[in-house]
Automatic annotation (TrEMBL):
Single GO BP term: intracellular distribution of mitochondria
Organism annotation: Oncorhynchus kisutch (Coho salmon)
Gene symbol of the encoding locus: CLUH
One annotated GO molecular function: mRNA binding
Name of the protein in question: Clustered mitochondria protein homolog
Listed GO CC annotations: cytoplasm
Compositionally biased spans, kind Basic and acidic residues: 20-29
Residues of the signal peptide: none
């Protein structure tokens, strides 16, 4: 369960809930708005009535209030107490109400006598060995919160916080800025050299900045189990459970006894065993209380984050690594949380919070188990078989390796297919989990890549290990379609998922040529566990195959695909379309369906009204339905024709949906729908319904003869989907990048952009080839460069995976450093084996570790740079069908403009490598860039399902919609509620919470609530430009630019530097912004004109009027050509040109006067004023997409009436595209509007 914060509550006001209700009713298509309002008001009353406050009394602390919900369990209060600073050191306690112990797993509403104001007492309970171990582990974790080494090295996903370093003490009222006399000490605003425009340096050390005043805190040097364990029999009878050994910072060696009553000092030493209590013994129930009596101890909580790809060598607290914990029944926990009630908002919140908590714990446990399996620390359940065929069970989780065991995938691509299958299966689990059908269960699934191996971790179905698979499977096939079984209950459950997942119900033949009905792929297996639940597993073919990468004899693809060089041979036959592509394709077909139906309906109406004999031919069925052109071509003839007749989609929908109102009584209307359905490939003849048969082109799957026509339609649908990918989705991605609505910044964001449009990464070569042929290639240089970098590092990762499989654990660091040298260093890496740290006397020693993949454990040393790059080029050609023209890293840098440091970061993140943070010399030809000591660790790369907070997400979407409509206050309230709900489900640290805070800060800034902006800025570490902070924000902005903050690019930094009169530095940044805008927006863009104006302002401040005039003339020319001389911007630029000319003339006169009369010259004072804060803020608003539109009161009323009229028209289904505001606007007052709220 996520952390609770005082004041956080699920209660919301009726207005907010009403807005959510409208949004949900629109999404679900349920009823009218009024019904939604009523139901939601009832729900809000339920929420408000359920929350109540109880008092908690813990030993040695003052009672405190805690707000709880009746649906919560007692266990959640336990978690809250373990998170609070004053009670975090307690683990073995019970909660008592009126001397009655509360059951940890009881819901609060079921506890008799628990009500508002009840006092719950925290009562210390006797320890057992298990409880003592849990307590020691918890104290160890708290102590580690003081030690930054885990955070520096990313252990257990700990991460560092650099807020105090970035802000340099400038944290508003809570800041600790040093005073110099009566004034605050000035902060150096000069940006470091490496972030200035044009700098070629890319240092690594600033990625982990050091605070000058920071000193490491340490409470203990050692806390571990004593060597005197276990206690002898006579001491067990005195209550001894275990013995601990501790070394304090003052080098005091202490022996501690953990007993049933608590912890106390004993008289044992390193060499003598004397378990009797010392004098004084300091008996304490908590280990922290004992330690605090020995010496002062303070235990803060640590932050959680992600693995870092850079780290440091640090010492750390000594402790026992593998203290055993409680083994959990993961499957029962995962399924039980899904079965929780979901009828109202409080129930759904508790359910989603429980699901998120269990999934997070399961993913962490699966990751630890996968590492233990690959490191050889887990015994296989089939130890007699070859290592690559072994399977494992650890902590009630089943682990299997990504190899083709028993030729299971022989016809699908062998090991390559076995490696791809787990990710396909995970995508299937994610899809079925998102549909969330009651009664249908999937397995907890985590896919881990570690040390070159892929491990699939799954929860275990109860009873599956006690019987053969043939007996267990009652639905689907265990041999890829040769034998098939079906089951009525599974068909019923899967039918409910078929519409959202676009899966067609179909028949296949089994081994007896009997027709079996399925509602999934044949590989999907249904097993009823001993717990009576209906499980589905092996969901690798949930989505249909990608025919562009699946050559089938006798099948010809669409012309669009053939022109792009498809079909292409892939290394396995499990290539399938992404769910996003399916959704986009169906939406595209729906648009065509609407247009076709509306077009035919209009033709019929025209025929009926005209009654012309010549139209009889045109109204015949053959002519009434225009043949469906290639729907994948963006400018298809049909689309153009329909658009000419029907200006808006709203009208098309209105006309098409009017068919439904006629209830199918009109045969002509039925004919219209029938023809439109046939044309777009709908499986229904009476309504639009596109679904895919996932078994098409699956080897071994046979279909009944009577479904031949349907199978042919399905084949054509798959060909059309493949053509839609290459002719619509890839061009749309490139178009989005051209108009900057998609902004990939590195490999991860590029991959995300591809996936959002349903484009698999295997199409990356096609995307780059398309960009290469685009006329505007120069404006896509950044995209092309990121794409090349991603392609190269992915090819290197593929090779690295195989390379690592033959490496012994003791040679891991040497092999990784050798690979990185071959990949990036200019030094011709000489193959050498590292000197063995441990020399054995035995000459013929056996290998200590068996590596799961087998192979020669010294083969890695023979790799050379030329061989590696030859393999990378070959991999790029065979996997991505892209030709790389390079033979080494230096040629890549020269030809494609990449940076070696970028390639290092990408390969480190993708392969899980952590390197020492220092400056590396890649270009030295005399010594390698990397040594063994530079490789700190190898982390697992983990893929798993991310549970969503659905209600919070709906609130967030509703808030965004309100903001887009101009209702900023209502939108802000909705986003605030979304933030509360996200906090409730996820805890404080989550990417969705970051998005909420970012939008709230932006909205509060627009609405003028600067105090709120500061709060969000402080909380989220985002700096908003405000009058009281802007000067001291400068160093923060410059640092954030280096660390990749999107908002604060050259223009923002240049403007702030201009505001604090750092003119030379400001000029460097603004000229860089001008160059970037000219390159990526084109020289005639209005953004370029604005950049010219900003540069001119700085030149004016420097009294360089000739340069200022030149820059402003460029901007004036762009404004004049783009918007005309009458436009306000053109006039402003013209006025500014006149002002600059006057200033230049005045300066020249003054200079002439000085030259002429020398010291006797009478000099008129020149106006050199610093830029006003208001003017700089105005420019900052503009370049960040915030524009304040001036409107009079009359205009406000007109605008309000217009918005209401448009909303009414939209609700009635009419088009509003051609509506405009009547009359010109009078510009008097100002209202803020955000033109770029995300």
């Amino acid at each position: 369960v996520g952390r609770r914060h005082s004041g956080d509550t699920a209660v919301m006001n009726g207005g907010v809930a009403h807005n959510l209700s409208e949004e949900e009713s629109r999404q679900d298509g349920a009823g009218d708005t009024d019904g939604g309002e009523d139901s939601n008001e009832q729900e809000v009353i339920v929420i408000q009535d359920t929350g109540f406050t109880v008092k908690i009394q813990a030993p040695g602390t003052e009672p405190f209030d805690l707000q709880v919900s009746p649906q919560e369990m007692v266990q959640e209060i336990h978690q809250v107490l373990m998170d609070r600073e004053d009670t975090c050191h307690r683990t073995c306690f019970s909660l008592q109400l009126d001397s009655n112990v509360l059951d940890n797993f009881a819901e609060l509403k079921s506890i008799e006598g628990l009500q508002e104001g009840s006092l719950l007492k925290v009562v210390e309970e006797p320890y057992t060995v298990r409880e003592a171990r849990i307590h020691v582990r918890h104290i160890r974790d708290l102590l580690k919160g003081l030690d930054p080494s885990d955070a520096y090295n990313g252990v257990d996903c700990n991460s560092l916080s650099f807020l105090s370093v970035f802000t340099d003490g400038d944290l508003g009222d809570s800041g600790k800025r040093k005073k110099k006399g009566s004034e605050l000490e000035q902060i150096d605003c000069t940006p470091p050299e490496h972030i200035l425009p044009g700098s070629k340096e890319r240092p690594l050390l600033p990625l982990q900045p050091q605070n000058k005043d920071w000193k490491p805190m340490q409470c203990l040097k050692v806390l571990t189990m004593s060597g005197w364990n276990p206690p002898p029999g006579n001491r067990k009878m005195h209550g001894d459970l275990m013995y601990l050994y501790m070394v304090t910072v003052e080098e005091r060696h202490i022996s501690i006894t953990a007993s049933t009553r608590g912890f106390y000092l004993n008289q044992s030493t390193t060499y003598t065993f004397n378990p009797k209590p010392a004098n004084p013994s300091f008996l304490s129930h908590s280990l922290v209380e004992l330690l605090s009596q020995i010496r002062r101890l303070h235990l803060p909580s640590g932050l959680r984050g992600t693995h870092t790809w850079t780290g440091t060598h640090t010492s750390r607290l000594g402790y026992e690594e593998h203290i055993p914990g409680q083994t959990r029944d993961w499957n029962e926990e995962l399924q039980t949380t899904r079965e929780l009630a979901r009828k109202n908002l409080p129930d759904r919140l508790l359910r989603e919070r429980a699901i998120f908590k269990v999934h997070s714990d399961f993913a962490a446990a699966a990751t630890r188990g996968s590492m233990a399996v690959i490191d050889g620390n887990v015994m296989a359940i089939n130890p007699g078989e070859e290592t690559r065929m072994q399977m494992f069970i650890w902590n009630n989780i089943f682990f299997s390796l990504g190899f083709d065991v028993r030729d299971h995938y022989r016809e699908l691509g062998g090991d390559a297919a076995a490696h791809a299958a787990p990710t396909n299966d995970l995508n299937g689990v994610r899809a079925y989990g998102a549909v969330d059908v009651e009664g249908l269960y999937t397995l907890g699934t985590v896919v881990v890549d570690y040390r070159g191996y892929r491990v699939t971790a799954q929860s275990i179905i109860p009873g599956i290990l006690e019987r053969e698979q043939e007996q267990s499977v009652i639905y689907g096939s265990i041999d890829f379609g040769k034998t098939v079984v079906s089951h009525g209950k599974y068909l019923e459950l899967l039918e409910r998922t078929s519409r959202p997942l676009k899966v067609q119900r179909h028949n296949v033949l089994n081994e007896k040529d009997e027709s079996m009905e399925l509602c999934s792929s044949v590989e999907c297996k249904g097993i009823i566990g001993n717990d009576g639940r209906h499980y589905i597993l092996d969901l690798l073919r949930t989505f249909p195959p990608d025919l562009n990468f699946l050559p089938v004899e006798g099948e010809e693809l669409s012309p669009e695909s053939v022109r792009q060089g498809f079909p292409r041979q892939h290394r396995h036959r499990l290539a399938c379309l992404r769910q996003e592509l399916i959704e986009a394709f169906v939406e595209h077909r729906y648009l065509l369906f609407m247009k076709m139906a509306a077009l035919q309906l209009m033709q019929q109406k025209a025929n009926k009204e005209s009654k012309l004999a010549t139209l009889t031919e045109n109204s015949s069925p053959g002519a009434a339905v225009p043949a469906l052109p290639s729907t994948e071509t963006p400018d298809s003839p049909l689309e153009g024709k329909a658009e000419d007749i029907i200006p808006g989609l709203a009208q098309a929908k209105e006309l098409a949906e009017s068919l439904a109102a006629e209830d199918g009584s009109d045969p002509k209307s039925r004919e219209v729908v029938l023809n439109a359905c046939k044309a777009v490939g709908s499986i229904s003849n009476t309504s639009f319904d596109i679904r895919f048969n996932p078994d098409i082109f699956s080897p071994g799957v046979r279909f009944p003869e009577d479904s031949a026509d349907d199978i042919q339609k399905q084949k054509q649908l798959l060909k059309d989907a493949g053509a839609f990918m290459v002719s619509c989705q890839i061009p749309s991605l490139v178009k989005d990048c051209l108009d900057h609505s998609a902004l990939p910044m590195d490999g991860a964001t590029l991959t995300e952009a591809l996936h959002q449009r349903g484009i698999n990464v295997r199409y990356l070569g096609n995307v780059l080839a398309f960009v290469d042929q685009t006329p505007a290639k120069a404006q896509l240089e950044h995209f092309y460069r990121i794409g090349i970098s991603e392609l190269i590092t992915r090819c290197a990762k593929h090779i690295f995976k195989t390379y690592l499989q033959g490496v012994e654990l003791s040679a891991l660091s040497a092999s990784v450093s050798h690979f990185l040298n071959c990949f990036l260093s200019s030094f011709d890496a000489v193959a050498h084996l590292p000197a063995d740290e441990l020399v054995s006397r035995r000459k013929n020693r056996k290998r200590r570790n068996r590596v799961p993949g087998g192979g020669d454990n010294t083969a890695w040393a023979s790799l050379t740079p030329s061989e590696l790059w030859k393999n990378i080029v070959s991999e790029a050609q065979s996997y991505y069908h892209f030709t790389l023209h390079c033979e080494n890293a230096d040629q890549v840098v020269e030809k494609y403009g990449l940076q070696k440091i970028t390639l290092l970061r990408e390969i480190s993140i993708k392969a899980g490598i952590q390197i020492l943070i220092k400056e590396y010399n890649f270009d030295s030809r005399h010594k390698p860039a990397f040594t063994e000591e530079d490789i700190l660790n190898i982390f697992p790369v983990v893929k798993h399902v991310n549970p969503k907070a659905s209600d919070a997400f709906h609130f967030f979407q509703s808030g965004q919609a309100k903001v887009q409509q101009g209702y900023l206050k209502e939108g802000c309230e909705l986003i605030n509620e979304a933030l509360n709900l996200f906090n409730n489900v996820y805890g404080a640290m989550h990417v969705e919470i970051c998005a909420c805070l970012r939008l709230l800060a932006r909205l509060n800034y627009i609405m003028g609530d600067h105090h709120e902006v500061c709060c969000f800025r402080h909380y989220k570490h985002i700096l908003i430009f405000l009058s009281r902070y802007w000067a001291s924000s400068t160093p923060t902005l410059s640092r954030n630019m280096y660390t990749g903050c999107v908002y604060y690019v050259s223009g923002n930094i240049g403007l702030v530097l201009h505001g604090v009169m750092e003119y030379d530095l400001s000029l460097r940044f603004l000229e860089n912004a001008l160059a970037i805008n000219s390159k990526y927006h084109g020289p005639r863009s209005l953004k370029v004109a604005l950049s010219h104006h900003l540069v001119a302002r700085v030149y004016e401040s420097k009294a360089e009027f000739r340069s200022a005039l030149q820059q402003e003339k460029e901007g004036y020319t762009i404004y004049k050509n783009q918007v005309g001389e009458a436009h306000e911007k053109t006039k402003e630029s013209s006025e500014y040109l006149k002002y600059l000319t006057q200033q230049a003339v005045a300066l020249q006169r003054t200079m002439n006067e000085i030259y002429k009369n020398g010291s006797n010259a009478s000099i008129m004072p020149l106006k050199f004023t610093a830029p006003s804060m208001a003017s700089v803020l105005e420019q900052l608003n503009i370049i960040n997409g915030i524009i304040f539109i001036p409107l009079s009161q009359k205009d406000l009323e007109n605008l309000k009436a217009e918005v209401q009229r448009r909303q009414q028209l939209q609700e009635s289904g009419k088009s509003v595209e051609d509506l405009t505001v009547d009359g010109p606007l009078e510009l008097e007052d100002k209202i803020p509007m955000d033109v770029n709220v995300d």
